[in-house]
Each structure stands twice: as structure tokens, then as C-alpha cells.
């Protein structure tokens, strides 16, 4: 008869052993998982739900803008326009010189999603960047869910039902749906489940070289989708590995060497492939360090764990706004029953060292997302938290802190999937209560379609190509308001929907605040006199009194931006005062192609 210690030891490693053997249980003799009709229906179901979430944008993807975060919608139009130029015009891969003229933009230091934008450059070229945004976001939601379903059902789980529930959570949790408001990179997480799976497979004999190379390739792909998510995953797996090693020393001693060797091969592979792009990101032109805000600004509110997100079926916008930093950062919001069922799942799985380590990793990243001090119901309590100790560590200081909470959101899906499997071993009454709890947890979190607004239509001056008669090569078209973060969105949208066929100054992107004196990250180019003046006029609606010296400074700024023509965007805020200011400096405008323009004689 076995001792209690022997039984506990067996239970503690059974999940990891299941990981190694699950592929054999679900695969045919060829070793490849079979595709079944149920898989097709699951895939179609996830895609249908993703289309439902994005349906209002799909109605007119080039004419509408996501209301939750129109700024970030605009920045990804820029990323797609850059990729189109790379493929169709032979532009530089890692640097864009037709945006933020005359300085340009370091694309590796931005969320350039090159692994996605380059293959879809033909879609951007022929159908427009708005279509590509809608397509990538839809495929991101549905694809992430199906990727988790595939890994959970083929390798980490036992039943398709459990995998489907866990995958639906991973793909359509409030965190994912909120990031669909413009964050194409953060909804495109379909590589991450396969990275997890390949890391776990490194424990198997004979996987050092083959497994390491495969893992390195996957890491490289993820670098060109979203480095931030890769950092989160690396931290999560690191905490998981340390926790598991402390609980299962004998097991780790048996597999540790080949596991570490496999990671080394993966590091060499990804380093060889992505080494130069990463060097360019951190040391090339336009690099920056840190974020334009303190770590305490964008943190997770503890009360948000049991609340509903604004885009959940049971969500109440006013409550969510109190507990969230923005519509794209509802990174927790599990709902009261969802939070309870996550805790129940941890209890059910607690005897397994692997699941316990998984839960610990999720909790650790959740604590990190709370920031350097506790925020509760919108109030900063001043209670210090562990993140304060690492908030200024390089690379960590590039992260928006609340996004660490995306990890526990994904971990929750994995825990729920395994709990659904395990509950089958419990008495009927317990199973019935668990099912009721799951319904109460999941139904209120069903996502609603994301809201959109109509974008300012492009005038004939742009759509008919009339601008070509006014903007020679090497010169720029300057829209007023100037493209910038939170202002000038229309000008940036026009330029990027035209795939940067004409160059433009400034814009919304990440770059150094005031080089070479200050390389702190900023959301836009350093302000010049004219950009600051016009931004203030547009925001506050006051008519400035300009001197001849002021007019000369404006002309100098236009020369710096290599301006050939200035275009006043119709329907802009305080457009009448903006027009009066431009007339004061540049004289009377011409009405061409539905807009007022001023030619700039250089």
C-alpha cells in the first residue's frame, strides 16, 4: 500500500505528465492531431463571435473609427501604411521617413506588427488600411481563442468542451474585447499558446535542438507582433518554472539540464533572427527609453476584479469608467461569479503542483498590475506594493503597468479549462453546482459589439489625387490641426488611409521626447512654436494676437516641415478661429477639392 507522500507526489506531477502524453492520446498513428468536424464548428463559432464584436466597424471599415480609442485606431493605420510602403514602394523596413517629417519614426520602437502587416500589405493597398484593421482585429479575437482551443484540446486538456470553455475565455475575456478598441497587437495572441506548449515540451527527451529551434522561431514571430505580450509570457513562465521547481525538486533535477539546453537553443535561434531589429529598436535612430508617464498612472484597480467591463453584457459604463484607466484597458473585470469560479477552479486543482504553479504565476502578475501603490474604487490609497521595487528596471519601465493583468485573464481561462475536466470526478451535486456557477460566470461576460463613430470624410482634394499637383516629391502636405496624439486625428487618418503617398509632419507615434537632451518616450514629436500654437487655438478657441516675429516663426516651422501646402480640415473643433489664424499668417486660402488650402512658396 502506498504512503500519503507517494500519492501526493504522483498527483503533483500528473498534469505535467499529461502535457507530455496528451498528444499521443488525441493523435492518430502518424503523430499528428486529427481535425474533426467539431473543430470546424468551434473555429466558425469563434470567428462568428469575433465578427459580432467588430460588426459596426465592418459595416464601413475605411469610413468609421473605433470610438473606444480612435487614437490607437489611427496609430495602427500608420503601421499598416508603413508595411504597404515597404512591400509596394521598397521603403525601409525599420524606419519610416514619410511620417514625422523631417525626422521620421523608428518602426521597431513602435508597435509595428510587421509579422501581420507585411503579409496583409496587399489588402491594405487594394482595400484600404481600415479593412486591414477590421480583419486583423477579427482574426485576432477568433484566432487567439482557437489557438488556445487547439493547444488545450490536443495537448493540455482532456475534452473539447473544457478546451472550448477555456479558449472562449482566453479569446473573448473582457481584457481581449477592450483591447479590440484599437490595439491590434494585443488581440493577436495566437502565437502565445504554441510558445507555452513548446516550452513545456522541452522537458521531453530528444527535444533540445528541434524543440529549441521551433521555440526560437515562434519567439521571433511574436517579437514582430507584440513584444510586450512576449515579455508578459516570459515573466509568467519564469515564475511558473521557479514555483514548480520549488515544489518538485526531484522532477526538475531529472529534466533540468535538457530543459535549460532547449531554452539556450531557442535564445540563440531568436537572437540570430531578431538581433539586429532589436538593436535598431533600442539603439537606432529614434530610439527612446521609458514611458511618458509614471508607473502609478495606469494601474489596475483592485475593485475591478469583481466588476463587469463596459463591453460585457452586464457591464455598466459609469461603473467601469470609475475602475478602469481607459476603454482599451479593462484588463480584469471578471465579474463577481467569474471571480468566484476562478477561485473555485484553483481550489479544485490545488493538489497539482503544475496547476498550483500556474495559479501562483497568474497571481504574481496580477499583483504587479496593481502598480507601486494600491488603487481601490478609483482612489490611490498610498499602500505600497511590491511593484515599486522594480518599476524603473529597464524594459519593465516600457510597460503600461495595468497590462500585466492580461496574464491572470489568460491564466484564468487555462484554470477554468482544467477545472471543467476535473469536476467530472466529483459527486453529481457538486458537478451541478459547478455548472450553475459557470453559467452565472460566463453569460454576463458575453461581449457586445464595439462602438464606432463616423470619421471625417476625405475630400476630393485627397481622394481624386488633386494634392499631387501641389505637393512635389520631397515636400509635405500639412493638415491643420496637425497630426498629433489626441489632436489632428483626421489629418493622420487621411495620410495613412492613403498609405503615406504624401509625406506629413508630426503624428501620433512613440519616439524620444526632446532629442538629444531628453530621450524619454513620448507619444509625439517635440513641439515647435507653430504646432503648440495651433493645438492651443484648436483646443481653446482663442484668437492669438500675432506679431511679425510670430509670423516669421510660423513660416520657419513650415519650412522645417518642408511644407508645400497647408490644408484646413473641415469640421475641426474651433475651425473658424484656426482659419483666421492661418489667414493672418498666410493670406487668403484657395478652395480646391472641397477644402481650403494655402500654397507655401519655398
TrEMBL record:
Transmembrane segments: 41-59, 133-152, 207-225, 231-247, 259-279, 333-350, 357-377, 404-424
The keyword Transmembrane helix belongs to this UniProt entry's keyword annotation: yes
Keywords recorded for this protein, A-Z: Membrane, Transmembrane, Transmembrane helix
Record protein name field: Glycosyl transferase
Organism: Actinoplanes subglobosus
Amino acid at each position: 500500500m502506498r504512503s500519503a507522500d507517494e500519492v501526493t507526489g504522483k498527483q503533483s506531477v500528473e498534469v505535467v505528465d499529461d502535457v507530455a502524453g496528451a498528444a499521443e492520446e488525441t493523435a492518430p498513428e502518424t503523430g499528428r492531431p486529427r481535425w474533426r468536424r467539431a473543430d470546424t464548428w468551434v473555429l466558425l463559432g469563434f470567428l462568428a463571435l469575433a465578427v459580432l464584436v467588430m460588426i459596426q466597424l465592418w459595416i464601413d471599415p475605411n469610413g468609421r473609427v473605433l470610438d473606444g480609442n480612435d487614437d490607437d485606431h489611427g496609430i495602427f493605420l500608420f503601421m499598416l501604411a508603413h508595411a504597404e510602403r515597404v512591400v509596394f514602394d521598397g521603403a525601409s523596413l525599420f524606419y519610416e521617413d514619410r511620417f514625422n517629417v523631417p525626422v521620421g519614426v523608428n518602426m521597431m520602437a513602435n508597435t509595428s506588427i510587421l509579422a501581420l502587416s507585411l503579409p496583409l500589405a496587399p489588402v491594405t493597398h487594394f482595400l484600404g488600411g481600415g479593412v486591414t484593421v477590421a480583419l486583423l482585429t477579427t482574426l485576432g479575437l477568433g484566432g487567439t481563442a482557437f489557438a488556445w482551443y487547439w493547444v488545450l484540446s490536443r495537448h493540455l486538456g482532456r475534452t473539447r468542451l473544457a478546451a472550448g470553455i477555456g479558449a472562449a475565455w482566453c479569446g473573448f475575456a473582457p481584457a481581449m474585447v477592450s483591447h479590440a478598441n484599437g490595439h491590434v497587437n494585443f488581440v493577436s495572441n495566437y502565437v502565445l499558446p504554441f510558445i507555452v506548449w513548446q516550452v513545456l515540451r522541452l522537458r521531453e527527451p530528444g527535444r533540445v535542438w528541434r524543440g529549441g529551434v521551433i521555440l526560437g522561431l515562434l519567439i521571433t514571430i511574436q517579437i514582430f507582433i507584440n513584444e510586450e505580450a512576449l515579455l508578459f509570457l516570459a515573466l509568467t513562465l519564469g515564475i511558473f518554472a521557479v514555483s514548480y521547481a520549488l515544489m518538485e525538486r526531484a522532477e526538475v533535477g531529472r529534466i533540468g539540464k535538457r530543459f535549460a539546453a532547449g531554452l539556450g537553443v531557442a535564445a540563440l535561434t531568436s537572437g540570430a533572427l531578431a538581433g539586429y531589429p532589436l538593436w535598431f529598436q533600442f539603439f537606432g535612430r529614434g530610439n527612446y527609453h521609458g514611458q511618458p508617464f509614471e508607473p502609478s498612472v495606469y494601474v489596475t484597480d483592485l475593485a475591478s476584479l469583481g466588476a463587469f467591463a463596459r463591453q460585457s453584457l452586464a457591464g455598466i459604463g459609469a461603473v467601469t469608467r470609475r475602475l478602469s484607466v481607459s476603454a482599451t484597458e479593462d484588463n480584469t473585470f471578471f465579474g463577481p461569479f467569474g471571480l468566484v469560479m476562478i477561485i473555485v477552479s484553483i481550489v479544485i486543482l490545488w493538489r497539482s503542483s503544475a496547476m498550483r504553479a500556474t495559479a501562483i504565476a497568474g497571481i504574481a502578475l496580477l499583483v504587479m498590475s496593481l502598480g507601486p501603490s494600491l488603487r481601490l474604487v478609483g482612489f490611490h490609497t498610498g499602500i505600497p506594493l511590491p511593484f515599486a521595487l522594480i518599476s524603473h528596471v529597464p524594459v519593465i519601465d516600457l510597460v503600461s503597468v495595468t497590462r500585466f493583468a492580461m496574464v491572470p485573464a489568460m491564466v484564468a481561462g487555462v484554470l477554468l479549462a482544467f477545472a471543467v475536466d476535473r469536476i467530472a470526478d466529483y459527486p453529481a451535486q457538486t458537478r451541478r453546482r459547478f455548472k450553475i456557477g459557470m453559467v452565472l460566470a460566463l453569460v454576463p461576460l458575453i461581449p457586445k459589439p464595439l462602438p464606432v463613430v463616423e470619421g471625417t470624410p476625405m475630400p476630393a482634394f485627397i481622394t481624386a489625387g488633386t494634392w499631387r499637383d501641389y505637393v512635389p516629391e520631397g515636400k509635405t502636405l500639412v493638415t491643420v490641426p496637425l497630426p498629433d496624439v489626441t489632436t489632428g486625428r483626421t489629418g493622420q487618418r487621411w495620410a495613412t488611409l492613403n498609405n503615406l503617398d504624401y509625406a506629413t509632419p508630426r503624428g501620433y507615434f512613440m519616439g524620444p521626447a526632446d532629442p538629444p537632451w531628453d530621450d524619454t518616450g513620448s507619444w509625439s514629436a517635440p513641439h515647435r512654436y507653430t504646432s503648440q500654437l495651433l493645438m492651443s487655438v484648436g483646443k481653446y478657441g482663442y484668437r492669438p494676437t500675432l506679431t511679425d516675429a510670430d509670423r516669421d516663426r510660423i513660416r520657419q516651422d513650415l519650412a522645417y516641415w518642408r511644407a508645400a501646402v497647408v490644408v484646413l480640415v473641415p469640421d475641426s473643433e474651433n475651425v473658424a478661429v484656426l482659419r483666421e489664424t492661418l489667414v493672418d499668417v498666410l493670406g487668403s486660402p484657395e478652395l480646391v477639392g472641397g477644402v481650403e488650402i494655402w500654397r507655401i512658396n519655398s
